[in-house]
């Protein structure tokens, strides 16, 4: 089993460069299925989700290369091969194969997705959208079967502003006949990134990034080149690490506008942040103040950042409260933080964290991607050695994390260990 080992206490200093956005990459890669020639995407992060999607496109008959952050996808020989099991279960974003395959082949069989378990993560709004476009959708033995004679544009009101449903409906609707209007669409920057790629492929999309998106379907989409936006969640993670244990860290390759909610909350805690055009320079104040935060859809505070932020709260003076309005059960990291001497408890969809606490190095488990990032931060702060298990969750979403952290002064390494069944059961 591979683990991260961290010797805590080293101060972070220097520049860390943010990679391309995971949540864009995992939608842009399936979007290439819709093209009639090669699609080249630059800035793809070195994460396991990207490699898994590459393997899935190859299972469909695509030719895919992935070198130095550039993925070239030739979708011309792809077929509507059923994917009820296997790789689709390794990540959440395999659900985008549904929209893209429906758009191109008018049929698909895709197993229900995996990804982080954060409480219930239904896909009813995706299915409602596909049905409104004219698809027959059934769930058979854990796989979603989609089939349409033809796709016809429709007006679709999303009951929740879902990132996945907005993108998935867009992927199918670009090849529907006539106009589709998505109302109460999600507004995350990754949606604009996907709309930009599709537009460069020849799609007709207006309003991406607002709550009403209009799509006029086209008969054909061609190959193109695209460079992905920076990962605002990775950027926020480094900003929080810099605030917790930095002596001046520049987080480079960011779009500061995408980070406004995070920047504002960190400033409220007393963190000093200087915004550049494409970078953030972070130096903490001597005393961190406790704050309350509520996660919301974009442009609100991102749910994907609340777990790392809760570790910073263990270092703030007084009681902080994190309420997650998107995922009510996204608090598994709190139990692990308690092992490290944090004073924290979960009440409903909130965590209450009392600081400041002296964190102690311990053996902990990454229960999901951002819980893992939170534990890396806790390990960097803690006295002594921390061992993080189940790091495959972290590696779904953070590109070259060890290398990036070592370059700014952290003492963290990846190690293979053998672990007995008895120890594993503890
Ligand atoms: C691959 C990807 O981009 N993942 C991101 C995406 O996940 P994902 O696209 O799965 O998240 P959604 O925006 O769809 O989910 C938001 C909320 O809507 C609910 N919901 C969603 C769809 C649906 O059909 N029915 C329904 O009830 C969910 O349970 C959740 O409470 O957005 C989340 C919210 O910003 C982020 O945490 C994830 O990192
Ligand atoms: C929840 C996340 O990812 P996914 O939707 O891929 O599980 C995340 O990126 O924090």
Automatic annotation (TrEMBL):
Q: Where in the cell is it found?
A: Cytoplasm
Cytoplasm found in the keyword field? yes
Q: Where is the active site?
A: 116 (proton donor)
Q: Which Pfam families match?
A: EPSP_synthase (PF00275)
Modified residue annotations for 2-(S-cysteinyl)pyruvic acid O-phosphothioketal? 116
Residues involved in UDP-N-acetyl-alpha-D-glucosamine binding = 92, 121-125, 304, 326
Q: GO molecular function, one example?
A: UDP-N-acetylglucosamine 1-carboxyvinyltransferase activity
Alphabetically list the UniProt keywords.
Cell cycle, Cell division, Cell shape, Cell wall biogenesis/degradation, Cytoplasm, Peptidoglycan synthesis, Pyruvate, Transferase
Q: Specify where it is mainly localized.
A: cytoplasm
Annotated pathway: Cell wall biogenesis; peptidoglycan biosynthesis
Q: Which GO terms describe its cellular component?
A: cytoplasm
**Top-level class of the enzyme under EC nomenclature:** transferase
Give all residue intervals belonging to the Enolpyruvate transferase domain: 7-405
For the keyword Transmembrane, the answer is no
Q: Which residues bind phosphoenolpyruvate?
A: 22-23
List the catalytic activities from the record. phosphoenolpyruvate + UDP-N-acetyl-alpha-D-glucosamine = UDP-N-acetyl-3-O-(1-carboxyvinyl)-alpha-D-glucosamine + phosphate
The processes (GO biological process) annotated in the record are: cell division; cell wall organization; peptidoglycan biosynthetic process; regulation of cell shape; UDP-N-acetylgalactosamine biosynthetic process
Physiological role: Cell wall formation. Adds enolpyruvyl to UDP-N-acetylglucosamine.
The family classification in the record reads:
Belongs to the EPSP synthase family. MurA subfamily.
Protein's recorded name: UDP-N-acetylglucosamine 1-carboxyvinyltransferase
Q: Which organism is it from?
A: Ureibacillus sinduriensis BLB-1 = JCM 15800
Please name the gene that encodes this protein: murA
